[in-house]
Amino acid sequence: MTLDWKNDIEYLELVEDLMYTEDVQSLSAFKQHRYSNRLEHSINVSYRSFLLAKKWNGNLRATARAGLLHDLFHYDWRTEKQAEGSHAYAHPRVALSNAKKLTEISKLEEDIIVKHMFGATVAPPKYKESYIVTLVDKYCACEEVIVPFYQRAKFKASTYFGLANV
Known about the structure:
Blueprint (H helix, E strand, L loop, with lengths): L8 H11 L2 H4 L12 H18 L4 H10 L17 H16 L4 H9 L12 H34 L5
C-alpha cells in the first residue's frame, strides 16, 4: 500500500527537518524486512502512526517524528551484534542516542522510540502515541514481508500453471 505522505503538507511540516538529513536518508542503504529498506519502513511507520494519532487526538508532532526515528541505527542487525544484548533490546537505545544527536527529543518521543519493541521487550509504553507506533511498526513489518511474498508466489503460480490471472 502506497500512502501519499509526500503530498501531506501537515505531515511534512512536522518531519521535513529530519526527513532529508544524511542520517535519515542513509537508512535506505539497509535492508529492513526482507523486501524493504529501513528508510521506507521508517517513513511507513511514521506516516501511518501520524494518521492514527490524528484520528485518535494524539500528539501528531511527537508521533510523526519518533515514528521516523524509531529505527535510526546504521548497522545490519542480521550480521552485527550489539554489546548491550539482543537486537530487540539494543536497537531502540541506539536509535534514541542517534536521534538525540540529530534533534531535541521530548520525553514522549523518547518513550515512543525506546518502547517501540514492546512485546519483544518487557517495559510497556507510557503513552497512547507509544502504543500507536509500536503496533504500526509490527503491522508494517508484517506487510513488508507478507505482501511481496504473496505477490511473488502468485506470479510463480500463474507462470507455473500457465494462468493469466491467479
